[in-house]
Design a protein that fits this description.
heterodimer, A: 263 residues, alpha/beta, 6-stranded mixed sheet, 4-stranded antiparallel sheet, globular, B: 290 residues, mainly alpha, binds adenosine-5'-triphosphate, binds magnesium ion
Chain lengths: 263, 290
């Protein structure tokens, strides 16, 4: 009882009265999200509801026009994106942002922070051995991550040459490589070959079982039903309803929102 | 003829150092810099003033590089988000500002008259062969800059700079400060131009603001653009091409029956402009195709 109360009153990640305007258009109005630590939460809603915009604000890529964002009892709105990421909140991009000219492997090898090889000292002659050792460790881990998403055979390919679906896998791989506390996955299955979707769900479960809180924007209701313990429906910039996947699926307002008719 | 060859090698080595600095900034990190001449001038004036005050040449080079690096960091920091379009304008404006300050501040370098009687390192050691010695010194410095750039390119740091060039939002999303790395890259590239300036001042023994106009920035831009983006070797070849075009046309004018010096000077600017346009057009096409 007490732990449940604690969970309810202290979500790991929370937005309060979040507001975002684009010019005259109110994209997000009074959005209140409460994400419990260790959960897999689905964020669904019709196109243009503002789901990606919420992710961008949480991750520091977009400045909100009002409201607050809290993570583990700390207010994080206003922090630049890289500082939010350092707290362990890692977002993926809806349209894949691969590092085009880098190899798939290098796309992951840039991830670890404070690499000695990325400092000027690492360029000095006596730094060589330490850098090689570090590189070796990072490469091993990167290959292990590529293996989990099934991209290991593409390690040496230029990231720009991957297919759309493979780029989405690379997005998830990069997120995993970051050792996140919270993973914000923006439509991870969109564009992925249907035969791979089961594997992809398994990857997300692996991430989750590693203790990561997962928030997932997803249009594929099948995926939402099977993966998420909690679902939040966003409509026209605000939370319309939330609950278990089953209760959401039965909610008539949700159906109406998706069909575009007034509730 | 040999004298001429030595002179052109020296000029090429100096231009190549400035160009390699730009290649680090633009080729690796994707930072536009249309004012590389400002850091070249900073280095030249710093070294000129210091060596005239009997500071050893080696220290003067380091000071020239350091001051250029600091100015480079400042320029990078005042440019909002170091965005490409802002950088183009800020660097262009900054270079003009530096030139105007040198032109109008009599205290720094005698205004338009410039600084003369700049001491040369190891002068008197080699006697009549001094130009050869100086060319070798300059080549040694170029080799150092080249090796540094190559090492950076192959290092995780180079990989990260190219990641920033490809998509800086990714680099932010993994928790790395894009700004810090951009400032570092810009500053390093400026330092290389600063060091080159020290050699330039010592080689000519005379410097004046008129030597540091925007056209110098364009020449090094052409040198970098000719090579494959990010390739240090390509930049080196580009610098050879540009300095042969620049210095070689002075040489040719004594041997060709037509054209006055002024006409040839105008001609080489036309050639430079045409090369720049061709390169940009070719680049644009490959960009559109990909
Ligand atoms: N940078 C921007 N500038 C202007 N308008 C924007 C911007 N980003 C999003 N919008 C608008 O804000 C609204 C919400 O967009 P958002 O991308 O968050 O929706 P979404 O719920 O993620 O939709 P989808 O399911 O299609 O991805 C849309 O109307 C969109 O056109
Ligand atoms: Mg979206």
């Amino acid at each position: 009882m007490t732990t449940e109360l604690l969970n309810v009153s202290m979500p790991e990640l929370e937005t309060r009265h979040l507001v975002k305007r684009f010019g005259g258009m109110q994209a997000i109005s009074d959005c209140n999200l409460r994400i419990a630590g260790g959960s897999i939460t689905g964020l669904i809603g019709p196109n243009g509801a503002g789901k990606s915009t919420v992710f961008s604000m949480i991750s520091g890529f977009l400045r909100s026009d009002g409201g607050e964002i809290w993570f583990k009892g700390r207010r994080i709105d206003g922090l630049p994106a890289h500082r939010v990421a350092r707290l362990g909140i890692i977002r993926t991009f809806q349209t894949p942002h691969e590092l085009r000219e880098l190899s798939v492997l290098e796309n992951l090898m840039v991830v670890p922070r404070s690499q000695f090889g990325e400092s000027l000292a690492g360029l000095l002659p006596f730094g060589g051995r330490r850098v090689r050792k570090e590189e070796h460790e990072i490469e091993e881990r990167a290959i292990a991550v590529l293996r989990t998403v099934g991209l290991e055979h593409h390690a040496q390919h230029r990231a720009a040459d991957l297919s759309g679906g493979q780029k989405k896998l690379l997005e998830i791989a990069r997120c995993m490589m970051c050792n996140p506390k919270v993973a914000l996955l923006d439509e991870p299955t969109a564009g992925v070959n249907p035969s791979l979707i089961n594997d992809l769900m398994e990857v997300i479960r692996v991430l989750h079982n590693g203790g990561v809180t997962v928030v997932i924007i997803e249009h594929n209701m099948n995926v939402v039903m099977r993966l998420c313990g909690h679902v939040v429906v966003l409509d026209r910039g605000a939370v319309m309803c939330e609950g278990t996947p089953d209760s959401i699926q039965r909610d008539e307002r949700v159906l109406a929102a998706y069909l575009g008719s007034p509730p | 003829m040999l004298d001429f060859l030595i002179a052109i090698v020296t000029f090429t080595a100096i231009y190549a150092m400035v160009s390699l600095g730009l290649n680090l900034q633009w080729g690796q990190a994707g930072l536009v810099n249309l004012g590389q001449v400002a850091f070249f001038a900073t280095g030249a004036y710093t070294a000129a003033i210091l060596t005239r005050a009997n500071v050893p040449f080696l220290w003067a080079i380091l000071a020239a590089a350091a001051l250029a690096a600091v100015l480079g960091a400042l320029v990078a920091l005042i440019t909002p988000h170091l965005r490409e379009d802002y950088l183009a304008i800020v660097t262009l404006g900054f270079a003009e500002l530096v030139r105007l300050i040198l032109l109008n501040e009599k205290e720094i370098g005698n205004g338009p008259n410039g600084i003369n009687a700049i001491p040369q390192p190891l002068h008197g050691v080699a006697g009549a062969n001094y130009p050869l010695l100086f060319a070798l010194l300059t080549l040694a410095a170029l080799a150092a800059v080249f090796l540094f750039n190559e090492r950076l390119r192959g290092a995780p740091l180079g990989r990260l700079l190219r990641a920033i060039r490809d998509d800086e939002s990714v680099v932010a999303s993994i928790g790395k400060s894009v700004l810090a790395f951009k400032v570092e890259a810009f500053s390093l590239g400026a330092a290389m131009a600063g060091a080159a300036g020290a050699f330039y001042a010592a080689y000519l023994t005379f410097i004046a603001p008129e030597m540091f106009t925007a056209s110098v920035s364009i020449y090094v831009l052409v040198a970098v653009l000719i090579g494959k983006r990010g390739s240090n070797f390509g930049t080196l070849l580009g610098a050879v091409f540009v300095s042969i075009l620049l210095e070689g046309s002075d040489f040719i004018k004594d041997y060709i029956p037509f054209g006055t010096g002024v006409q040839i000077a105008a001609f080489r600017i036309i050639v430079m402009g045409a090369v720049l346009m061709l390169v940009v057009l070719a680049r644009y096409r490959t960009m559109v195709e990909s």
